[in-house]
Here is the input.
Amino acid sequence: MRTEAETARRRRQSRARMPSSAGYMIAAVLTALGLFFALWWMLVSGGDEAPWLPAGLAASVVLLVALSAREVVMRRAWTRYLLENGISEHSDERARSRHADKKSHSSALLSAALRAIQKQSVEADSAGSSPEAHLEVFHLCQDYLAGTDEALRSSMTGEKSIAMRAGQERVKSLQKHHMLSWARETSVLLTREAQQRARTSDKIETANRALDSLDSALKIYPDEPELNESVLAIKEFIASVKVAHWVELAERSAFKGHFKRAIDRYKDALFYLNRETVKEEVRLAGEERIGREIQALRSRLKSSNQTGGRKMNGGGGVPE
Here is the structure.
């Protein structure tokens, strides 16, 4: 009897302390009115001609702030109330049912997650989708695999365990597919953008961003041939940009008659041709072409020096 009486008394006290939205609004209105009359009286005492205007404005501001904060304040009040009363009353019941519901609840959530992944996978593969859609599916697959691993570690057995492992295999396949798709489409877009850039530095910077996307995928799938071939192609593009830049500078110098400077710039082109990643046949062809240009420039430089020397010698003679 004593226990029942104490329980009833605690419940009455809990209901008395239950948060009330109406009570909050009444308190806010009374506070605003009190502020209005207090300011009004102070302004009237000070000889203000229109004391109601600033007093009404201040009271309105207080009321607006109270209305804006009502949701936050009431949410906190309800949370505190539940922590003090509701949770403590029902925690034992939840603890008993939690273990029984956990497995079925997690299985249902993972099944729903698998359906969502399959749906987003189809959307990401559709025409017009962006590379970021593939990356989003990849992250969803990561979350699903982490969730299923945790569920399997919690002694899940039987048909649910078999179905979950089968789901993992499907998701791993989707995960790889979308990571490769993201890396491929991103690198293609960035490489095209690099080709359209005017400045050499912008071309190289954009191509390096394409390399970064491929490197991210290679960290997960290091033995994937498609990724390695794409990396090689972009590195060859970067090498061609650098070599073409120095060849162009050399040609400009040769056109202006600066043969020695042109030779030096052709040598810079050779340096990058041998330093960067380039196919053997491409490198040999480039070396042969640049070598011919350097040889031709040396011949022209020698001829120019000899002509200049003859002019100097002839200029020293006695005129007839």
User: Anything to note?
Assistant: Residues 2-99 form one domain. Residues 178 and 283 are 35 Å apart (CA to CA). The two ends are 146 Å apart (CA to CA). Residues 11-16, 86-101, 316-320 have pLDDT under 50 and may be disordered.
